[in-house]
């Protein structure tokens, strides 16, 4: 049964928390009403939280009309993101810790990087990049472990006006090459090796392989992390550690227009290859900073930790840009939750006296399975707030997080948002809203969610209701375009439901008007919080010489949320066996990366297709879910008998 307001227990904020919070219930109501009544007035005022070189006077110029979609915020304002995240704090917070870095191996010392250190190191990195020929508007790929240099690199790009694009260190050389070429990057910043969970990924040698498929002019800047041996290509490879020693401690921040791109982040959609989501300078930073402060109720002296990787949008907005714009202390963790053992997260919380902790449901599920002792043996009394992001959280998992990790005293913010939205879109606010296990609850300021009937596209005003989730008007953190393909941007987000931004998610609104995200309604799957298009896995599979055709769907997986279920039709004459299954698994890992590794591969002599040749994924999804009693209408299939065969031989029996 899906939970609703009648069955779900609610957890109101304590009076003490509400009285100290930035936003209590009355303030939320007033601010939310103001933000939708007059967005320009509201956001014009919020923009004052940043230091502008030229303050904006034109606040909102946005249009969701298909064919002329255009999104601009603060367009006549100018500023520099790095100056906002570092320089303006120097006078009051120079000696305050900006970044706490906790390495993969707990026996290696942690680092404390003050705002003054951050300034020096970012400036040096910026000067190194300039000396390599990087100029305003150029693209730089960052392919680094979770080390402080990743933050320096992001901020250094922002300082000189270069556009960064981070590629998650778990991605393969092929995926890296596609992104270098996709945005025509001038430089790739990488490290010798990335330690994670006691193992090392050879990043530099991955980059070497990727660069074989890129223009000869692309340069590679190499940060030393482990000292592991790397091969060196004279003239192409540059030694960061050596160059940083020589580089000047100061680099002037470049004046950027609010709508100049800040970064590109590749993300998966339901069709084709990943697209380059473009975020710009002014609106993004206003939105990341405000949401960070309000959602996490960040106050001076707090130690805030988001356990995401900077390779994902969560790391961009809530490890680096939001917290640093607010002058916060942000923790950066190189490791994984389960190594050396399942106590690692909680030991880090204890060691650094973390006050706000933000992670993904998949991590919580994995840790919950290890038992409570790993948590309860640590002193977690510093924790004041918990957060989750990335996928729907099951109520049992929410309860465990609340009771065992939070000791029943920490509000949980279940934040719904996307790479495309730049920051939180729906979340309870800790001092304002009662929470319900599994609900994203309320829209953030300026966000106008609507539930649409999936068929008619009409807005449904009554509650309770269920439908697809769209947003009615723009907010400053919204993506502006797909890099190099504005038409794809319009088609992906504005063509299914005219006049709205379509999220790709389904949702319910309960009788109280609170929102529950039910998951993707398109061909995007969410595996351990990592988002991927089934089309990407399919094209990797069919690139194998023995595969004729493949269809990929998600199925419920206890730890990962969704697992990857592949139906594979082999070339004629090829006999399926276990060896080939293994080979295909390894193949997909090398084509995309370990996160895309198929969980189940079913040999499919035929796939269910309509007479026009379209694969009916609805049916494949049902079979993968073991829900073959509810296949629905199969009469439009060209050959209905293939379905019987697939059911007969389905993989996850039980
Ligand atoms: C899902 C991650 C339920 C959703 C910030 C969305 C969630 C996709 C939640 C975006 C949540 C994210 N509850 N589902 N709190 N947060 N999602 O771009 O399906 O990696 O569309 O951004 O994750 O994933 P992305």
UniProtKB/TrEMBL annotation:
Acetylated. Deacetylation by the SIR2-homolog deacetylase activates the enzyme. This is Acetyl-coenzyme A synthetase. Residues 28-85 form the Acetyl-coenzyme A synthetase N-terminal domain. CDD domains: ACS. CoA binds at residues 196-199, 314, 528, 589. Its EC number is 6.2.1.1. Keywords: Acetylation, ATP-binding, Ligase, Magnesium, Metal-binding, Nucleotide-binding. It catalyses: acetate + ATP + CoA = acetyl-CoA + AMP + diphosphate. Mg(2+) binds at residues 542, 544, 547. It comes from Ponticoccus alexandrii. GO terms for molecular function: acetate-CoA ligase activity. Residues 536-614 form the AMP-binding enzyme C-terminal domain. PROSITE patterns: AMP_BINDING. Catalyzes the conversion of acetate into acetyl-CoA (AcCoA), an essential intermediate at the junction of anabolic and catabolic pathways. AcsA undergoes a two-step reaction. In the first half reaction, AcsA combines acetate with ATP to form acetyl-adenylate (AcAMP) intermediate. In the second half reaction, it can then transfer the acetyl group from AcAMP to the sulfhydryl group of CoA, forming the product AcCoA. Residues 87-474 form the AMP-dependent synthetase/ligase domain. Belongs to the ATP-dependent AMP-binding enzyme family. The modification N6-acetyllysine is found at residue 614. Its cofactor is Mg(2+). PANTHER family: ACETYL-COENZYME A SYNTHETASE, ACETYL-COENZYME A SYNTHETASE 1. Gene3D superfamilies: 3.30.300.30, N-terminal domain of ligase-like. ATP binds at residues 390-392, 414-419, 505, 520, 531.
């Amino acid at each position: 049964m899906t939970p609703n307001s009648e069955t779900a227990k609610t957890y109101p904020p304590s009076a003490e928390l509400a009285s100290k919070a930035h936003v209590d219930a009355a303030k939320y109501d007033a601010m939310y009403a103001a933000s939708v009544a007059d967005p320009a007035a509201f956001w014009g005022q919020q923009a004052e939280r940043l230091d502008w070189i030229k303050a904006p006077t034109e606040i909102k110029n946005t249009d969701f009309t298909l064919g002329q979609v255009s999104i601009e915020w603060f367009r006549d304002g100018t500023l520099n993101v790095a100056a906002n995240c570092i320089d303006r704090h120097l006078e009051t917070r120079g000696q305050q810790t900006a970044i706490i870095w906790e390495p993969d191996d707990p026996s290696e010392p942690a680092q404390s990087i003050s705002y003054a250190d951050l300034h020096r190191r970012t400036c040096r990195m910026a000067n190194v990049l300039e000396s390599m020929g990087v100029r305003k508007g150029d693209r730089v790929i960052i392919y680094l472990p979770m080390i402080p240099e990743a933050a320096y690199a992001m901020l250094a790009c922002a300082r000189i006006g270069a556009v960064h694009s981070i590629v998650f260190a778990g991605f393969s050389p092929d995926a890296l090459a596609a992104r270098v070429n996709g945005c025509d990057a001038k430089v790739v910043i990488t490290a010798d090796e990335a330690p994670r969970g006691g193992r090392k990924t050879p990043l530099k040698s991955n980059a070497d392989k990727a660069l074989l498929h890129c223009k000869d002019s692309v340069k590679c800047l190499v940060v030393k992390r482990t000292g592991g041996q790397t091969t060196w290509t004279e003239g192409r490879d540059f030694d960061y550690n050596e160059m940083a020693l020589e580089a000047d401690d100061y680099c002037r921040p470049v004046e950027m227009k609010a709508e100049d791109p800040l970064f590109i982040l590749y993300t998966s959609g339901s069709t084709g290859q990943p697209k380059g989501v473009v975020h710009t300078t002014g609106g993004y930073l206003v939105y990341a900073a405000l949401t960070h402060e309000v959602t996490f109720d960040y106050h001076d002296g707090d130690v805030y930790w988001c356990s995401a990787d900077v390779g994902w949008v969560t790391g961009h907005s809530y490890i680096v840009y939001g917290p640093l714009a607010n002058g916060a202390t942000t923790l950066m963790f190189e490791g994984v939750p389960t190594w050396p053992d399942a106590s690692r997260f909680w030991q880090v919380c204890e060691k650094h006296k973390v006050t706000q902790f933000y992670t993904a449901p998949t991590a919580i599920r994995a840790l919950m399975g290890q038992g409570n002792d790993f948590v309860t043996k640590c002193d977690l009394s510093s924790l004041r707030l918990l957060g989750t992001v990335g996928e729907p959280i099951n109520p049992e998992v929410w309860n465990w997080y609340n009771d065992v990790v939070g000791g029943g005293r920490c509000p949980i913010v279940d934040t719904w948002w996307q790479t495309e939205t730049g920051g939180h879109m729906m979340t309870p606010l800790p001092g304002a809203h009662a929470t319900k296990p599994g609900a994203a609850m309320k829209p953030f300021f300026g966000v106008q969610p609507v539930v649409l009937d999936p068929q008619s596209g009409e807005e449904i005003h009554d509650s309770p209701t269920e439908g697809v989730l769209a947003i009615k008007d723009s907010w400053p953190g919204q993506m502006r375009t797909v890099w190099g393909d504005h038409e794809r941007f319009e088609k992906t987000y504005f063509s299914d439901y005219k006049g709205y931004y379509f999220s790709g998610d389904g949702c319910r609104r309960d009788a109280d008007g609170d929102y529950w995200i039910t998951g993707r309604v398109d061909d995007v799957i969410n595996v351990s919080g990592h988002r991927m298009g089934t089309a990407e896995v399919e094209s990797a599979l069919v690139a194998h010489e023995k595969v004729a055709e493949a269809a990929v769907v998600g199925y419920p997986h206890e730890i990962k949320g969704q697992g990857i279920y592949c139906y594979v039709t082999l070339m004629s004459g090829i006999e399926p066996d276990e060896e080939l299954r293994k080979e295909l698994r390894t193949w997909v890992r090398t084509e995309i990366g370990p996160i895309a590794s198929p969980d189940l591969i079913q040999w499919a002599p035929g796939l269910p297709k309509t007479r026009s040749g379209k694969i009916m994924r609805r049916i494949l999804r049902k079979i993968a879910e073991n829900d073959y009693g509810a296949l629905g209408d199969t009469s439009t299939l060209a050959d209905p008998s293939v379905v019987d065969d697939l059911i007969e031989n389905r993989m996850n029996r039980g």
